[in-house]
Amino acid sequence: MIDDSALVRKLLGRVLSSEPDFQVFFARNGLEGLEQLNAIKPDVITLDVHMPRMDGLACLDRIMVEHPCPVVMVSSMTREGADATLEALRLGAVDFVPKPEGAVSLHMEVFAPLFLAKVRSAAGAKLKASLRLRERVQHRIGGGATPRGRVPGPGQAATRATGTGIVLVGTSTGGPPALESLLAELPSNFAWPILIAQHMPASFTGPLARRLNDVCAISVTEVVRPTAIESGCAYIGRGDADMVVSKRDGLLVAAPTPMNARYPWHPSTDRLVNSALEHVPPPQLIGILMTGMGNDGAGAMTRLRALGGRTIAEAEETAVVWGMPGELVKAGGASFVLPLSKIAEQLKELAPIHAPDS
Fold this sequence. Notes:
This protein is an alpha/beta fold.
């Protein structure tokens, strides 16, 4: 655990040390943490963002090059904290946990289970930063592994859809870099709108949408009010709520809605897909389930496929956590199982070629 606050180290260290299979080591800043990594090879690191001498981002970048290891960022809920967290995920952090506002000790009853679950999940996660490092080495020496091709599910061909439809995407742990990989490969006139349920607090989904909008040809926005959906646009559900598809005046609309206790993760992929099935014929829907712990989206996308829609699950070899897509594959709900680098290519084969010029 790398954190400059003695109180945070004490409180979070107590949470981890209470588990019989955890052994906890502490560092007060990034430089001290890097020094310890020469002797300690941890299964997972928790890393504060704002620290003296060396901040969390600089420390993370060094960790990923010198001592690749799953990292969970402990971040503030501010706009600045959200931007730094998204940068950390781009650099290779597996996940983040938002630091409680105010007196941390007063929020531990709620915070501790989430923190523990994130750390446990990260300990078994794959490192995309290490893949980045291997690719650099392979580029220098030539060669390297060839990614596996797409694996269609039984009985479903890669036929192109026609007409108006929607792409529905669900992600959680490791999602922001996966979303960037997917959306950055799509042209500005991509035919169908894309609705995204990324598990995140509300203070993070807006900065995520802005960041993706800056690097993608398509327009990316956060849904904070009922919004008519258009081709060439992606819509990210606001955190701490759900996003559903509805119709207003004959137009398909993405709308934020309060969380529903039937759905444990938010924004809920299952709820998003189920709502789309109420208004759009299944053959006009494409579901994509990428990296994330849990099973959100697996049930609804299995239903989508059974009704005639197409679904894509991220392959285990590239998913940071193969929970959500893995559950879709196990349920027989995946039309295609693809490494992350192949998902956009397959999506462009399934959707209409391009949107009509406006």
